[in-house]
Amino acid sequence: MSSITGRTTALVALALGLSGLTPASDDWELLQQLQRGDRVRVQVRRQPDVRGEFATITPAGLQLAGLRNQQIDLRRADIRRVYLVRKRSRARAAAPWIGAAAGFGLGFAAGWGVGESSDCMFLCIGAPKPAAGAIVGLAFAGVGGVVGKFVPAKTERLIYRAP
Fold first, then answer.
1. Are residues 107 and 130 in the same domain?
2. Tell me, what's the pLDDT at 22?
3. How many domains does the chain have?
4. With contact defined as beta carbons under 8 Å apart, do 103 and 143 qualify?
5. Do residues 94 and 78 both lie within one domain?
6. In contact, 107 and 141? CB cutoff 8 Å
7. Which of 98-102, 116-120, 154-158 has the lowest mean pLDDT?
8. Are both 116 and 37 inside the same structural domain?
């Protein structure tokens, strides 16, 4: 049962991780969709990343408002990537509880199926069906909670990548 649980956990984690992937574009004009005040992170060639609020875009570069409203001018040739920074959602904080609830539901159904019955021939638990469902459900709830805790939080979205 542990190898099945491990495989299932790996598949769920892979599916959740892949669902957040979005292809980046090398189209500079996509940055026009940013609104003034949007939080961005810019990877600059041979320099540390620059964080700030989006101000304006020109064909020659990008202008951000940094801390204390200082103006930051970045040349287009120096920009490698631009990320839109989003705040962490409340749903993300609930992910472990959602995972635990889903795990308990799946585990309860599996435990009910392997609970004591008169015609049990394979993989039986010597407890009544409701108790077996609760026992297996609690184990699966723990696994679901751990998976929910470690699902990666996508707080940044890549919107531009230099060609």
1. yes
2. 40
3. 2
4. yes
5. no
6. yes
7. 116-120
8. no
Neighbours of 107 (CB within 10 A): 23
What's the CA gap between 8 and 71, in Å, rounded?
A: 50
pTM score, whole prediction: 0.51
Residue at 67: amino acid letter: L
Distance of CA 29 to the CA centre of its chain: 27
Q: What are phi and psi of 27, to 5 degrees?
A: -85, 110
- pLDDT reading at 16 higher than 50: no
User: Same structural domain for residues 68 and 111?
Assistant: no
Q: Which residue, among 126, 106, 101, has the nearest Cα to 114 in the 3D structure?
A: 126
**Which long-range contacts (C-beta less than 8 Å, at least 24 apart) are formed by 32-40?**
32/57, 33/159, 34/84, 34/159, 38/84, 39/84, 39/85, 39/86, 40/64, 40/82, 40/83, 40/84, 40/85
Structural domain for 36, as ranges: 28-88+155-161
Query: Region 87-97: what's the mean pLDDT?
Result: 75
Answer yes or no: do 137 and 102 share one domain.
yes
| 133 C-beta neighbours (distance < 10 Å), count | 22
Cα–Cα dist 103/109, whole Å: 10
Contact yes or no for 40/52 (Cβ under 8 A): yes
